[in-house]
Amino acid sequence: MMSKPKDEPVAEWRTVEGPQAGAPALPGQAIRRATEDSKAPSHYTEAGLLMLIAGATNGMFAGLWLLSGFAFFLCFLLVLPGCVGAWQAYVGYRMSQGDLQQSAMAAAVTGLVSSLLNLNPIGVVVGLIVLFKLGKPEVASYLRGARS
Question: What pLDDT shows up at residue 106?
Fold first, then answer.
């Protein structure tokens, strides 16, 4: 039997358990979980945790703006940042678990714009820290290597 070279990353596929055993974790999408050979950099998982926090605060700020009635006439503008906050929190959670997320940079940028629209100072500061962490060379090479 031939074994794979040591420098080649090894990927395993995580699947759903239960009645849909063997199905990909998301419909139509298989998720690569980092193994020992291709473990996610620490800055990547830290950025994921921070992105989860920023997404949660974006969702809360959008909800507070809607509930306050102060910006009720702009409710259509606040629904989008709330949805972006939920997406950002989801991507951040997956990143903090070490799952490879191709949309990490897009979620960080749209989350930062959402924070600016919500007037969310916590989200702006945390979003900038996330962008700095995703811009680190080891994280950029991890995301680039995963695309190929």
Answer: 93
CA-to-CA dists, residue 90 to 54, 110, 119, angstroms: 11, 13, 21
The backbone torsions φ and ψ at residue 108, rounded to the nearest 5 degrees and listed phi first, read: -65, -45
pLDDT of amino acid 28: 46
Kind and range of the H or E element at 34?
A: strand 31-34
DSSP class per residue in 41-88? PHHHHHHHHHHHHHHHHHHHHHHHHHHHSTTGGGHHHHHHHHHHHHHH
Helix H or strand E encompassing 148:
none
Give domain limits for the chain: 41-147
Rounded to whole angstroms, how far apart are CA atoms 121 and 31?
A: 33
Decide if 124 contacts 130 (C-beta within 8 A).
no
Query: Six-digit token pair at 88?
Result: 């950002």
pTM for this model (two decimals)? 0.70
CA angle 91/29/60 to nearest 5° reads 25
